[in-house]
Specification:
A zinc finger (C3H1-type) spans 80-107. Residues 162-184 are annotated as: Disordered. Residues 80-107 form the C3H1-type domain. The chain is built from 6 helices and 7 strands. 37% of the residues lie in helices and 11% in strands. The chain has helices at 3-24, 52-61, 81-84, 87-90, 110-133, 183-190, and strands spanning 27-33, 44-48, 65-66, 69-70, 105-106, 142-143, 150-151. The chain has a domain at 3-108: Alpha-Beta Plaits.
Amino acid sequence: MNPRQLEQYFDHFFKDVFIRFAQIGEVYAMVVSENDNNHLNGNVYVKFKDPDLAEQAVVLLNQEWFGGRPVHCELSPVSNFSDADCRAYETNTCTRGDKCNFMHVRRPTAELKRQLFKSQDKTILLQKLQKLTGDDQYGLQIRKGGVDAKLFIPEPVPIAISQQDPLPNEEPVDPTNDTNISSTAAVERLFAR
């Protein structure tokens, strides 16, 4: 396997694993170790935004298989991945080889990592919009047309908003006025803080 093929193979692996973890909850960080020793090689470390999700991941993933092999998942005491990185490996100067107990991190391409986290952010935003509108199908409608069906956000849906601080250059919302506002304005208010 040449270096380009190895990079593509690893990116595919990283994407599959990231997506599976993101189905459990919001992934804060994920690293894959490629040490020469057996006890670290191929280990995947994930830090969730919510620590309780790590416990849920252990229960769920210990019942699954990946690539024809059973998954073994456990909680790690490492809370900061950069503290566990082998600094010498980062500069191609690690001389400990298979005796090194710090993580030799294999990194995905920067573009893939950016796309995965951006996609996760989009999913979280969609979930917030669904909760805000009270419609669990909001944003999931598929518009027919052309060769491919595409995901789209439908026209603004009027929703009621409780009293909040107004956005700059905006009139305050009168809580006694039952007038609804568009979902676009609601999203702006939601993320204006």
